[in-house]
Amino acid sequence: MSLVVVGSMAFDAIETPFGKSNKIVGGAATYIAWSASNFTKPIKQVSVVGGDFPKEELLKLEARGVSVEGVQIKEDEKSFFWSGRYHMDMNTRDTLDTQLNVLANFDPILPDSYQDCEYLMLGNLAPSVQASVINRLNTKPKLVVLDTMNFWMESAMSDLENVIKKVDVLLVNDSEARQLSAEYSLVKAARVILNMGPKYLIIKKGEHGALLFHGNDVFFAPALPLEDVFDPTGAGDTFAGGFIGHIAKTNDISFENMKTAIIVGSAMASFCVEKFGTTRLKEIKKADIDERIQQFVQLVNFDIKLI
Amino acid sequence: MSLVVVGSMAFDAIETPFGKSNKIVGGAATYIAWSASNFTKPIKQVSVVGGDFPKEELLKLEARGVSVEGVQIKEDEKSFFWSGRYHMDMNTRDTLDTQLNVLANFDPILPDSYQDCEYLMLGNLAPSVQASVINRLNTKPKLVVLDTMNFWMESAMSDLENVIKKVDVLLVNDSEARQLSAEYSLVKAARVILNMGPKYLIIKKGEHGALLFHGNDVFFAPALPLEDVFDPTGAGDTFAGGFIGHIAKTNDISFENMKTAIIVGSAMASFCVEKFGTTRLKEIKKADIDERIQQFVQLVNFDIKLI
What we know:
Structural class of chain A: alpha/beta
Strand content of chain A: 15-25%
Oligomer: homodimer
Order of helices and strands of chain A: EEEEHEHEEEEHEHHEHHEEEHHHH
Number of strands of chain A: 14
């Protein structure tokens, strides 16, 4: 099933309590594509990079079945750059530097070959850009998933409210859910947000797992308890990539299958944090993923008959 | 199966962002007994109270199959009193007042009828007092579970290290696990703590659920996402009561059954927080508990066959 992924492809510089990276390749759409390409082909990437973005990164993605026809290369400009420092709990971070560069005037182009899009994953971007992609598709996809962040709630709330009316699944973290809903209880927050448009809401809680809300139903997936969390950058995008990748692979948008997709996303995120940037995502094979998903089964499985 | 419960029976005064209680009945052993008595009889209570402790509270427990022969009543003294204020996240709190009173010189007495103890639940108390109960039992119980807190790590670490060598299951929260092990990662913390003696470690994470570690195995139980957490006081004790109550009822100390016991404990804790003090625990019936356990099944159950 055809999956279109929209988002940044960029450079990051990361400091954690355990180390410091140079300027490395990152960006929401990078992580999403690396994660989702374990499950489904073709993936059709929509992004913009500067002349400084390594061409071999695009070739590596193409080799995994990711079309980069929709990735604009602005040779005379620079790629988006973000630099940040994580605190000890790895759930909070300070932004040290943000250089929008090519992202400042990003006008997403959808090649004709992308019009067969059945699944649309809108990575974190300006809500107006996310909306323009939805509007430029001639046919409504089977499922539209949108990720966003607190920055847009502060700077473009009205655009954000407009675009989330048009999506099926909204992805936010716990503090963003609280900010968006003005409710502290995540159960109450979910009810408010589901009334804003999306049919499904996923609240990511980092090391504390993720919740899926739909009507009155709720599903919880833990994060895998890890010996070391080396670098959480991209974990949310990697989660999103596993989630939409599994759904596109199975071509099943039922609530039951979304639960499974969240477990797949959680498994993918657990790899992402093991090394800096996309390093670990580039190493893992199908057998690693299958083994990790079995760890999730072991982690939460209990025998109700013993009660 | 005979279950002996040791811990404080006391008064609390509680402030939360949602309200303030008068001086109400609390104490670890109170919550444990109310919770465990839904699953097993007889429960044999070991505690100490002052003349101010309401006699009808003891009668209510007796009516549920809890023997209070081991509860010393010091008519001329006052019961232990704790007062605290919870922050918005309900996972952190400030102690406003602590009056040890009868607890200052608590010398636990084990009536002869308690010597058939098969399951021993040591609620949070001075580690030396917990150790003396173990030493006064003529026969080693099938399972000894110990709850403790950061206060003893700061004031009586050597006593604590001695007593946890003698127990099968240790219960702490996440920050206490980090303090006890000097490791930030809970996976590493668990390894250090399991090397200190206990065969099983339960790390309680409040609204983020609970982890059970044993050797290289790990199990995770979520907390039920609740609309409102009204008062978290006693939630950990109520969890412990459900855990040991289920194990005593089933007389099965396997790792598989401990997983189920943790789900039972989590279900009981989810009731406790719905009202001030023990109010909710005194209202619920078997049907309420069964329904809530089914909610946990729904919350975590996913179909691996869909992968």
